[in-house]
Write a structure and sequence with these properties.
This protein is α+β, with helices and mostly antiparallel strands and about 350 residues long. It has twelve helices and nine strands. The strands form two sheets. The chain has a seven-stranded mixed β-sheet with strand order 1-4-5-9-8-7-6, with helices on both faces. The protein has a two-stranded antiparallel ribbon with strand order 2-3. α1 packs parallel to α4. About 30% of the residues are buried. Bound molecules: adenosine-5'-[phenylalaninyl-phosphate].
Length: about 350
């Protein structure tokens, strides 16, 4: 056997650390112990450092070779430590998962937003009228006195103005008290035939269980040659049957709105009781509930918007959307709509 040089001995010693380290680390199963083993070999006073102390005594030409072996051993040990720590972390994560997640449990519902009940009802109403050829029209909520009242045959100091107690912004500007000014705006900008529905917020000094200072109405207007009261009744009857998905009747009670002639209050059969006589808090045992106003467009209004009264007739109607939603879903206080309580809103 030839004599081994000091260089060969050092390299053999370093090589042996690789095997030794594998043996030391194999049974270890926690991070601290593994880090300890790493320090035992690679620490400042570790085995590799100790072995490298002889470097200064080796022939200068051999030193790079020994250094390279030392670096390789260092890299091998470090990568082995990283691999083992990775395995430990993975096993810990899996154990955690197995403990926390029972995949057989039913899923928790994810809370999802939805349309407000008034929006749902508004869209449904629009859809039913759209089937009859009505398109949506819009108008401002801050409205001129002229559009809201005067053009609708309600001149200043007309007693019927008191029917809708008004929020005035200035002498000539109001928060619209109904959606009827959209009739005026539409007729000023479109020639007949006209068929529109106009949903939107309106404002009145009004506040009780079924009345709110801000609420929503939907207006309907049709102007064409030969339209009659029978057409109005047909549209409203169709709407009520479609909206409540029941064969309900309507009745038109003579009433006064200055912008229609003849004018009527629209009643529908009560959805909550078996008719007159049964104890019902909604219709107060009459069997009928009021849902809005309607009538034939007054020639006075046509004159304001310059539509030929000889050639055209028209009908109009206006309903409260809160009211329709109350009847549809048995809601007994109008404030529920506006309070934003999710326990209420989630029911729809
Ligand atoms: C009107 O506002 C008329 N512009 C309707 C109309 C249009 C008549 C076209 C003729 C032709 P009225 O004031 O009755 O009418 O209101 C209509 C509906 O709005 C009522 O039936 C009711 O359902 C609803 N309503 C009225 N005031 C309030 C309020 N303060 N809060 C909630 N809903 C209301």
């Amino acid at each position: 056997m030839s004599d081994l040089s000091a260089t060969d001995v050092t390299i053999a010693e370093l090589d042996a650390f690789e095997v030794e380290f594998s043996r030391v680390i194999a049974p270890l199963s926690d991070e601290q112990a593994i880090r300890g083993a790493q320090a035992q070999f690679l620490g400042k006073k570790g085995k590799v450092a100790e072995a490298m102390k002889v470097l200064g005594k080796l022939p200068p030409a051999d030193r790079p070779k020994v250094g390279a072996v030392a670096n390789r051993i260092k890299a091998t040990i470090e990568s082995e430590v990283a691999r083992r720590l990775g395995e430990l972390a993975q096993a810990a994560a899996e154990a955690d998962l197995a403990r926390v997640v029972d995949v057989t449990l039913p899923a928790r519902p994810v809370p999802a937003g939805r349309l407000h009940i008034l929006s749902q009802v508004r869209l449904e109403m629009i859809e039913i009228f759209a089937e009859l050829g009505f398109v949506v029209a819009d108008g401002p909520q801050i409205e001129t006195d002229w559009h809201n009242f005067e053009a609708l045959a309600l001149p200043k100091d007309h007693p019927a103005r008191d029917m809708q107690d008004t929020f005035y912004v200035s002498e000539d500007i109001v928060l619209r008290t109904h959606t009827s000014p959209v009739q005026v705006r539409t007729m000023l900008t479109q020639a007949p035939p006209i068929r529109i529905v106009a949903p939107g917020f309106v404002y009145r000094r009004d506040d009780d269980l079924t009345h709110s200072p801000m609420f929503t109405q939907i207006e309907g207007l049709a102007v064409d040659e030969g339209l009659s009261f029978a057409d109005l009744k047909g549209v409203l009857l169709h709407f009520v049957k479609r909206f409540f998905k029941r064969d309900l009747g309507i009745r038109l009670r003579p009433s006064y709105f200055p912008f229609v002639e003849p004018g009527a209050e629209v009643d529908m059969q009560c959805v909550f009781c078996a008719g007159p006589g049964s104890a019902c808090r909604v219709c107060k045992s009459t069997g009928w509930v009021e849902i809005g106003g309607a009538g034939m467009v007054d020639p006075d209004v046509f004159q304001h918007v310059k539509i030929d009264t000889e050639r055209y007739t028209g009908f109009a109607f206006g309903m409260g959307i809160e009211r329709m939603a109350m009847l549809r879903h048995d809601i007994n206080d109008i404030k529920f709509y506006y309070e934003g309580d999710v326990r209420f809103l989630e029911q729809f």
